[in-house]
Write a structure and sequence with these properties.
- The structure holds two protein chains of two kinds.
- By secondary structure, chain A is mostly helical.
- Chain A is built from six helices and no strands.
- The radius of gyration of chain A is 21 Å and the shape is globular.
- By secondary structure, chain B is mainly α.
- Chain B folds into two domains: 15-91, no CATH class; 97-381, no CATH class.
- Chain B is globular, with a radius of gyration of 23 Å.
- Classes of the chains: A mainly alpha, B mainly alpha.
């Protein structure tokens, strides 16, 4: 079917099960961990498609950083570990509409970008080429992202700084 | 009859020959699979053996440093102690706290050990001795290393114990903070080599000038990179002096307080495997991988050199643990963000300049002067700002 094999279905299965569990489990930390499983499944999918860079970047950024961020955010709020009563927000209909809209947009973008019926030669993308492209063709977007991240880092430091001078005894 | 050079080469490739020999017994279509399986078995057997040796060395070495004998009852000079430890941990009762989150509590050590083992897949332990020669080998290692944090969090959170949770939070905060300098300090090697493949990085450090090798540690940026990498690696593996997450005197055992029996042993194994793999990568990146340190010592097989260097790395870790006091949380963070990170960033610039300054002595002088000056300046400013005295707390009083 579409020239995909068992690894593809395995990776998709892991991703879908993880995502479903993240949406339906009652304990927030369990949801976060299930979401990590979905991230891992996506990384497998990228690797299965031969995109080493995207796959490892997915693991490094999403499992290594985003999942930790989610977990920290959950632990810093109240009600950790207790099952929440209102797992589903009252406006779930609105959420459904937004989700369907996003899905439709992405699907439309994907379908319109398909390069016709004839098979295109698979581009061989090595890490070296990605690095070269990032440092030459796409250097401006890269720099903009870097500046944005630096600004957010400085912003975080400013937010975390103690207001005004504290007294000598530190109270 | 074979000449000595032939024997040397045979000894160098003995494991590769063995792998091909065993794979030769299988049908042709199975051979690649069998080859991989043999390599995996090799990794899974070798590194836990190194773990046993490291634990014994650590207990003996720490004993010596603290002026006592260390384990000396099991076997001659206590060298069979790891076997006794293994049997003990296998036969102990596995206690899971009543309020613990069973599934997550069970998965945490499993995930940790599996993920740590994955890191060895791209580690070249000798000439032609790497399981996966990946284009993105180093990137793979860092991606894998980043996912151990989650297993530590899982362990701490699922135990439902305040010490575990505190230890896990400390561990995660520390590992995230030191992951940045760990990555940045190894980027210099990638910049100079022009590849993320671990095999190519080792090959780029091959060759000798006179009797001295071309290791990256013998360049100004490489030396600084190696020092920063070592510091960050100590913090990543939660080793002394960065062992706050499991500080015995304050947190019992940190995130694995509530683990017993074999699960505790798995955490122990995971920690030491992490130590071995990160030392292995420090060796690969800066210390020439499996290359010999002097040109007339090439008769020792490449894998021999790798494991000798690994032994040296472990010895260094043990020495540090025996001699350094534990850092405080604020010192830990200040050191990471105000000293290690700026130095790593500056090192990137210096390595880039080094690349384009061409051969000759000027680049040595300039690079050394810039890095040395920055080290002195940053150190001075840090020390001047340092208020030594009781710490003041903003919210905790």
């Amino acid at each position: 079917m579409f020239g995909v094999g068992v690894p593809f279905f395995l990776a998709s299965f892991i991703t879908l099960v993880g995502a479903l569990a993240a949406a339906t489990m009652r304990n927030l930390v369990h949801c976060a961990l299930s979401l990590t499983v979905a991230f891992g499944g996506l990384a497998l999918l990228y690797l299965q498609l031969g995109a080493q860079f995207a796959g490892f970047a997915q693991i490094l950024v999403y499992i290594g950083a985003v999942a930790i961020l989610v977990v920290f955010a959950i632990l810093l709020t109240r009600g950790v570990g207790t099952s929440l009563i209102h797992v589903y927000a009252r406006k779930w209909g609105l959420g459904l509409v937004i989700a369907a809209g996003v899905f439709a947009l992405l699907g439309w973008a994907l379908v319109t970008s398909l390069p016709g019926a004839q098979a295109v030669a698979e581009p061989e993308v090595s890490m070296l080429e990605i690095g070269r492209a990032l440092m030459s063709t796409y250097v401006l977007p890269l720099e903009i992202v870097a500046v944005l991240l630096t600004v957010s880092l400085i912003g975080a430091v400013i937010v975390a700084m103690p207001e005004g001078k504290t007294k000598e005894d530190g109270r | 009859m074979m000449n000595p050079a032939g024997y040397i080469q045979q000894a160098d490739q003995i494991f590769v020959t063995l792998q091909h020999w065993v794979a030769g017994f299988f049908p042709l279509w199975l051979q690649p699979l069998v080859g991989i399986a043999i390599a995996v078995v090799g990794i899974v057997a070798t590194f836990p053996a190194c773990f046993a040796i490291a634990v014994l060395l650590e207990r003996k070495g720490l004993g010596r440093i603290q002026n006592r004998l260390g384990p000396n009852r099991v076997g001659p000079f206590g060298i069979l102690q790891p076997i006794a430890d293994a049997i003990k941990s296998l036969t102990k009762e596995d206690i899971v706290p009543l309020s613990a989150d069973g599934v997550v509590h069970f998965l945490a050590p499993v995930v940790l050990v599996v993920v740590t083992f994955l890191g060895f897949a791209v580690l070249p332990v000798g000439r032609n001795m790497v399981l996966l020669n990946m284009d993105a080998g180093l990137f793979f290692f860092f991606a894998i290393g980043a996912s151990t944090e989650l297993s530590i969090f899982m362990a701490g959170w699922s135990s439902r114990n305040k010490y575990s949770l505190l230890g896990a939070m400390r561990a995660v905060a520390q590992m995230i903070s030191y992951e940045v300098p760990l990555l940045l300090s190894s980027v210099v090697v990638v910049m100079i080599t022009g590849s993320l493949s671990t095999v190519k990085i080792v090959e780029a450090q091959g060759g000798f000038t006179g009797i001295f090798p071309h290791w990256y540690v013998f360049t100004p940026w490489g030396f600084l990179g190696f020092v920063l990498f070592t510091v960050a690696a100590l913090a990543e593996t939660n080793r002394s002096p960065f062992d706050l997450p499991e500080g015995e005197s304050e947190l019992v055992a940190g995130y694995f307080t509530e683990y017993s029996g074999f699960k505790f042993a798995l955490f122990f194994l995971g920690e030491y495997l992490g130590m071995l793999s990160i030392s292995g990568f420090a060796i690969t990146l800066f210390l020439g991988g499996w290359g010999a340190p002097l040109s007339f010592l090439t008769f020792i097989p490449s894998w021999g050199w790798f494991f000798l260097k690994l032994l040296g790395g472990i010895g260094f870790y043990i020495w540090l643990r025996g001699t350094m006091p534990r850092l405080r949380q604020d010192q830990l963070m200040n050191f990471a963000w105000k000293f290690v990170l700026p130095m790593a960033l500056l090192n990137l610039v210096v390595a880039g300049a080094w690349r384009f300054m061409g051969e000759g002595w000027p680049r040595w002088v300039i690079a050394t002067a810039v890095l040395g000056g920055a080290y002195v300046l940053l150190g001075r400013t840090l020390m001047r700002r340092q208020k030594i005295g009781p710490r003041s707390y903003r919210y905790a009083e």
